[in-house]
Amino acid sequence: MEKLIEQFSFGLFFWQLLLLIILLLVLRKVAWKPILNAIEERESGIKDALEAAENAKKEMQNVTADSERLLQEARIERESMIKEAREMKEKIVADAKELAQVEADNMINQAKTAIEGEKKAAVADIKNQVATLSLEIAEKVIKEQFSDTGKQLKLVEEMVSDIKLN
Amino acid sequence: MQKPFYVKILLVATLLLGFNAFAQDKDNQSVDEKGSVKAEIKEFIAHHLLDSHHFTLFTIDEENNEHFGFPLPVILWDNGLKVFSSSKLDHGQAVAEVDGEHYALYHGKIVKTDAQGTINYDAEGHATNVKPLDFSITKNVVFIILVSLLLIFMFSRMAKTYKGNNIPKGIGRALEPIILYIRDDIAIPNIGEKHYRKYMGYLLTVFFFIWIINLLGLSPLGVNVTNNIAVTFCLAIFTFFITAFTANKNYWKHIFWMPGVPVFMKVVLAPIELLGTLIKPFSLMIRLYANITAGHLILMSILGMMFIFKSWMGSSMSFVLASALSFLELLVAALQAYIFTMLSALYFGMAVEEPEDH
Amino acid sequence: MEIPTIVGAGLIVVGAAFGIGKIGSSAMDAIARQPEASGKIQTAMLIAAALIEGIGFAALFAS
């Protein structure tokens, strides 16, 4: 220990102190500050770039997922549309068929009634004509038959006999 | 892959140059006996570990006191500022006369003396000469300045390459992982996400300062700055003051009035905790100093063994051992910087810990 | 008989060495058990070892 104290050189201590202070100040200004700042800047730059890449990746994934989802939706929509269209078509066809059937039935019915009416009218007409004709014929026959008195008498006789029979 | 490669190059260069320089130092010594060799090695190591007023690159001739290097300015405070070149001292061989006062080197320290350079001793053999306050630019100070300039140059250039695209170029590629390591594995786990930013400057500066200066201490120049207690003391006192000044109420409460223990224990714990705050930077100081000193001491002793054994076996063994130790020292250089930074961060973390973090 | 302080320092160093060894072996066990936590274990190990080392150095320099 005494040797150490004896060896201690105050001059060297003084110079070392002075030079170390100068060295510290100069290096801090000239070297450490710019170097550390540059390193930190670079590191933050790298970090930012990595984050940006990560974000871009995520976004990309989102976009793909979105487009996938959209595609899926579109597909579903298309299918449902097709299905709907098919159903509509079927419905329209069915409706049309039904409507046609009803219309046809109606027409047939109408036609039937019309025919029936015509038939009745025709029959009534025929009946009338037949009656008229028969009356004319009967008139003519009667006129001819009863042109002579003998025959008239004979008829009367016959009729009378008929009545008796009844 | 940058960092290992960078380290590898440094490592190989350090080893090659290191041995070269040590060898140069040793080759120029003419020795005959083992005993004198031992003493010489001991002296050489002691000299190597000491600070010096002359930047000696290598010794040309020990006998004639010829050294290759350059003198450094000596600055003394002795009733006024005295500045002169260390060449006047001539490695302790001459007495320098400045403004009527005489100075000489005694065991690496400047002492006041008379014109003849007389050293007075007390009964225990210690020199009693007056030691003026020595603010000299010594070898270690030059090295601290060089390393500071190197750090400023290196990191300001690195900072410039970040302009524009925030990507480092050149040496920044090797240094950035270390900066990131200090931030992510030392500062943030120990101090916490919220407060770590304001300590980063100190942690990074201290780490790179200690690491680079330790590595260069292993280089052929061999100026081991961190084996001076003054240097590690300065570093430790910085950690201590930063801890003390940035500490929040919770930290002081834990020291002076520990919550959750009986009153008697609170009274007992307060001085212990207070002592703990001083022991922490003290251990930081001693650890760095002792590790580097011990490393250099062992490495140089093993290298010195080469000259003691002077045999094929002993020399090659000491060579292998020294190589292994050099690798270990490279690790220690980084490890001590890491531990100093780590423990500093730990202490800062304690200082800013919030009560709810418990 | 007076025991030189260096002997005490030596004893402390032996103790410190034993402590560091124990920390190392425990850390090895822990890493073997939980290899994913090796970083944290290493940090804790280094801190504990550094603290004990500090005691060892204190003893060495106090002697």
From TrEMBL, chain A:
Coiled-coil segments: 36-105
GO molecular function terms attached to this record: proton-transporting ATP synthase activity, rotational mechanism; proton-transporting ATPase activity, rotational mechanism
Membrane topology: Single-pass membrane protein
TM spans (from-to): 12-32
Top-level lineage group: Bacteria
Keyword Transmembrane: yes
GO cellular component, one term: plasma membrane
Keyword terms of this UniProt record: ATP synthesis, Cell membrane, CF(0), Coiled coil, Hydrogen ion transport, Ion transport, Membrane, Transmembrane, Transmembrane helix, Transport
Entry's localization field: Cell membrane; Endomembrane system
Assembly with partners or alone: F-type ATPases have 2 components, F(1) - the catalytic core - and F(0) - the membrane proton channel. F(1) has five subunits: alpha(3), beta(3), gamma(1), delta(1), epsilon(1). F(0) has four main subunits: a(1), b(2) and c(10-14). The alpha and beta chains form an alternating ring which encloses part of the gamma chain. F(1) is attached to F(0) by a central stalk formed by the gamma and epsilon chains, while a peripheral stalk is formed by the delta and b chains. F-type ATPases have 2 components, F(1) - the catalytic core - and F(0) - the membrane proton channel. F(1) has five subunits: alpha(3), beta(3), gamma(1), delta(1), epsilon(1). F(0) has three main subunits: a(1), b(2) and c(10-14). The alpha and beta chains form an alternating ring which encloses part of the gamma chain. F(1) is attached to F(0) by a central stalk formed by the gamma and epsilon chains, while a peripheral stalk is formed by the delta and b chains.
Family: Belongs to the ATPase B chain family.
Protein's recorded name: ATP synthase subunit b
UniProtKB/TrEMBL annotation, chain B:
Coiled coil: none
Location(s) in or outside the cell: Cell membrane; Membrane
MF (Gene Ontology): proton-transporting ATP synthase activity, rotational mechanism
Keywords per UniProt: ATP synthesis, Cell membrane, CF(0), Hydrogen ion transport, Ion transport, Membrane, Signal, Transmembrane, Transmembrane helix, Transport
Signal peptide start-end: 1-23
Bilayer disposition of the protein: Multi-pass membrane protein
GO cellular component: plasma membrane; proton-transporting ATP synthase complex
Ion transport in keyword set: yes
Domain of life: Bacteria
InterPro entries: ATP_synth_F0_asu, ATP_synth_F0_asu_bact/mt, F0_ATP_A_sf
One family name in Pfam for this protein: ATP-synt_A
Transmembrane parts of this sequence: 141-159, 199-217, 229-248, 255-276, 288-309, 321-348
Stated family: Belongs to the ATPase A chain family.
PANTHER family membership: ATP SYNTHASE SUBUNIT A
Role, per record: Key component of the proton channel; it plays a direct role in the translocation of protons across the membrane.
Protein name as catalogued: ATP synthase subunit a
Originating species: Arenibacter certesii
Lineage of the species this protein comes from: Bacteria, Pseudomonadati, Bacteroidota, Flavobacteriia, Flavobacteriales
Encoding gene per record: atpB
From TrEMBL, chain C:
GO cellular component: a single term: proton-transporting two-sector ATPase complex, proton-transporting domain
Pfam families noted in UniProt: ATP-synt_C (PF00137)
Matches recorded under PROSITE patterns: ATPASE_C
Residues spanning the membrane: 6-23, 44-62
InterPro entries to which the protein is assigned, alphabetical: ATP_synth_csu_bac/chlpt, ATP_synth_F0_csu, ATP_synth_F0_csu_DDCD_BS, ATP_synth_F0_csu_sf, ATPase_proteolipid_c-like_dom, F/V-ATP_Csub_sf
Principal location: membrane
Signal sequence, start to end: none
Keyword annotations: ATP synthesis, CF(0), Hydrogen ion transport, Ion transport, Lipid-binding, Membrane, Transmembrane, Transmembrane helix, Transport
Entry's localization field: Membrane
Nucleotide-binding listed as a keyword: no
Location of the V-ATPase proteolipid subunit C-like domain: 8-60
Biological processes per GO annotation: proton motive force-driven ATP synthesis
Membrane protein topology class: Multi-pass membrane protein
Record's keyword annotation contains Transport: yes
GO molecular function: lipid binding; proton transmembrane transporter activity
Family as reported in the entry's similarity comment: Belongs to the ATPase C chain family.
Function field: F(1)F(0) ATP synthase produces ATP from ADP in the presence of a proton or sodium gradient. F-type ATPases consist of two structural domains, F(1) containing the extramembraneous catalytic core and F(0) containing the membrane proton channel, linked together by a central stalk and a peripheral stalk. During catalysis, ATP synthesis in the catalytic domain of F(1) is coupled via a rotary mechanism of the central stalk subunits to proton translocation.
NCBIfam families for the chain: ATP_synt_c
Protein name stated in the entry: ATP synthase F(0) sector subunit c
